[in-house]
């Protein structure tokens, strides 16, 4: 009998007490001595029968409540599933009725739809989802149209490129390149030399050097396409310099195939000094005519950041003759600096070489810098030019103040 009692105690400890603790019930409500009490005769005499029956009513109640909760948990899941299915059915009914309902809806959106407090709130939420879905469809349609237009433009461009790259056009371009190269090769033997002084790298920034190289590339292409090109010389050109790196960026593999002369020597070591003329805007001597027997030197630099007189000082230090373009003689100079870019200088010199006409040559000067060409002699226009300069410098105001001081002296 004692073994039976111990077995019942173990069952209660292992099953009932943990379940009761899980559901917040106290251990005091289960007094083992009360529920499993036996008569004294059972303890004293094993042959006696128990006077009391086991009181397991509380145990049954707890077990029943646990089973009901488990059943309710298992039943709640199909209830949620059934509510979601019902919500989907209502959505289908509203869609068939013609209301604003989205075509695709996620479970989270469906749960928020179910949590809406009223029917109007549910309608507003579904309308919001419907508008959002339409907006996404519209954006996708626009992206598809843009992609189609881009593909059509690429197809048209490829077709035009194919038409451009016909046999006749390719033949024409190849023959013209051969003709240009032939002229450049002839100029290296018989052409008039034109020197670009490449000794100004240390006086410019990286950006200014890149701008200078860009202008030199334009000058070389303009010279190569002219009827009678110059024989271009890049003097004072150092290997692995910033000039060379920028030229390689532009020309790449064609840099070694250019029909020009590149040397690290100075122009005074290659040509006689009596034939060299350094073109600089700071020169006091004005160039009147183009001399085909002279060798003109152009400084390869950007004049905006260089101090005035740098190229003139270099020419004087080397004992060379200098000259400036007659811009004021032929142009009514209004605004801007009188320094020109290297490609503009190349256009002017090529035109002078071919035509010897200053008006045609100076047409390559930007029109924002001058008002027009001079039609009267310079002496007649000197008064107007002086008047413009005085107005710019504010000297007219000083003269007016002097006249007022003379006419109305202070007491």
Automatic annotation (TrEMBL):
Biological process terms from the Gene Ontology for this record are:
methylation; mitochondrial tRNA 5'-end processing; positive regulation of mitochondrial translation
Superkingdom, natural source:
Eukaryota
E.C. number: 2.1.1.218, 2.1.1.221
The UniProt entry's coiled-coil ranges are 136-163
- Keyword terms, alphabetized: Coiled coil, Methyltransferase, Mitochondrion, S-adenosyl-L-methionine, Transferase, Transit peptide, tRNA processing
Its UniProt entry gives the catalysed reaction(s) as: guanosine(9) in tRNA + S-adenosyl-L-methionine = N(1)-methylguanosine(9) in tRNA + S-adenosyl-L-homocysteine + H(+); an adenosine in mRNA + S-adenosyl-L-methionine = an N(1)-methyladenosine in mRNA + S-adenosyl-L-homocysteine + H(+); adenosine(9) in tRNA + S-adenosyl-L-methionine = N(1)-methyladenosine(9) in tRNA + S-adenosyl-L-homocysteine + H(+)
Tell me a GO cellular component. mitochondrion
| Entry GO MF terms | tRNA (adenine(9)-N1)-methyltransferase activity; tRNA (guanosine(9)-N1)-methyltransferase activity; tRNA binding
Q: Where in the cell is it found?
A: Mitochondrion
Q: Which Gene3D superfamilies match?
A: 3.40.1280.30
Annotated PROSITE patterns:
SAM_MT_TRM10 (PS51675)
* Xref: InterPro entries: MT_TRM10-typ (IPR028564), MT_TRM10-typ_sf (IPR038459), Trm10_C_MTase_dom (IPR025812), tRNA_m1G_MeTrfase_euk (IPR007356)
**Residue ranges of every copy of the SAM-dependent MTase TRM10-type domain listed in the record:** 180-372
Q: What is its main location?
A: mitochondrion
Please state what the protein is called: tRNA methyltransferase 10 homolog C
List the source organism.
Answer: Rhabdornis inornatus
